[in-house]
Amino acid sequence: MPAGALADRLASLTSWHADWSGLRVAVLGLGVTGFSVADTLVELGARVLVVTSSADDERSMLLKVIGADLLEQADLSTPPVRLVEFDPELIVVSPGFPPDHGLLAWAADHGLAVWGDVELAWRLRDKMGDPADWIMVTGTNGKTTTVQLTATMLAASGLRAAPCGNIGVPVLDAIRDPQGFDVLVVELSSFQLHWVNRNPGGELSPYSSVCLNVADDHIDWHGSIEAYHAAKAAVYENTRVACVYNRADPATEAMVRNADVVEGARAISFGLDIPGPSDLGIVDGILCDRAFLEDRHRSAIELTTIDELDKAGLAAPHIVANILAASALARSRGVDARVIHDVLATFRLDAHRIEVVRVEGGVRWIDDSKATNPHAADASLRAFESVVWVAGGLLKGTDVDELVARHAARLRAAILIGRDRDALRAAFARHAPDLPLYEVEANETKEVMPTAVKLAGEVAQAGDTVLLAPAAASWDQFTDYAERGRLFAAAVHEFLGGEADDESASGH
Known about the structure:
CATH topology of the largest domain: UDP-N-acetylmuramoyl-L-alanine:D-glutamate ligase
Number of domains: 3
Helix content: 25-40%
CATH architecture of the largest domain: 3-Layer(aba) Sandwich
Structural class: alpha/beta
Radius of gyration: 24 Å
Strand content: 15-25%
Number of helices: 20
CATH superfamily of the largest domain: Mur-like, catalytic domain
């Protein structure tokens, strides 16, 4: 097909009911996202070749069952002959492929269109009838909590709502769900946002959107902090109703100011201080909405209180910020304040997010394994006064110097784990040379946490918190952050033995 005719055809593919038959698509990656892409495209009648450096047996078998082809080759730095001979008309890329990957360079050289799974899902969102509204959530930290909260608030108000995207359920699976939805709350990573709004016909237009915060992360993938920020900023483009931003993070406000939005879309801020008109915030321990009411210049609506959140284990400052962001998104879609109040009375955080493992002898043991970068660890450390900090792993090119400097005064000791200990050790030498510092030299996964917990337990005193908030990814020693957290908790119970103090079961 001539290049112009192909470009016109791709631009016209903006509906499930368009003609996708025979389109040759190369899908890069065979993780959860890649399989959902292949499954969807086969259902549409496209010819699909999945290209991956490794494939597990189950997904390989399922590809054969659905009728997609598989190209598995360890070295994908240059395009395999079979991919070249397939002559794809479209590339759909999984988030694991960085922009400078050899296959993407080849695609660019040959003028091939590249879509992400999110763009494909947006084009196909009418499968079950009237498309659901999309509420889009990104940020360096807090995405999953905010998405879960928002979806729960929407569902409690009677809307058919579902969390999806980077949270674990591919957005392509959500748009194909036979029951259909009124609203999808879509968690988006910077990897996914990098590929949106690049192709005619595929421009996203969310109902409401938020970037919760921005800090250095994934610089190795994006190539620069500027590129990372630009990817996050894409969440606001073409927003129709509310651009929600963090007024404590000027970068998110700048993103909203620079976004090209639908006329009439409002800028709504959230923060832990007193809110102005069009803001959500806190007054005398009361979470207030001054954005979604008639007389917002002279009054406010109460959502809940810090005391009530504390009883639910939700009072850590960064969690309160997530609650305010989720409340703004839910309120933008018409959820009543009383519904939000009732949801917050029963909502509980995911495992490995500031989760109390045990309280024994006045020492609190906390699993925040999901703090996989310095920004998340910073928020976690701020929640406690005296900390024995278990930190380390894969730093992904981020700088930990400022994190150590900011929190050195609240540390009783630090226990370093993982591969990238050098940067942490150097930061402690600069900013806390007298702090007791211990390193876990164990290489086997099963040895890491028992050693770290034993070291922490020997130095912790009554009133301390032993905090696993690694500020780093887990893949050097663990399958993921969840395994890291589970092994930490198991090691804590093994080390302490016996029965837990009553407070351990309180969840806060």
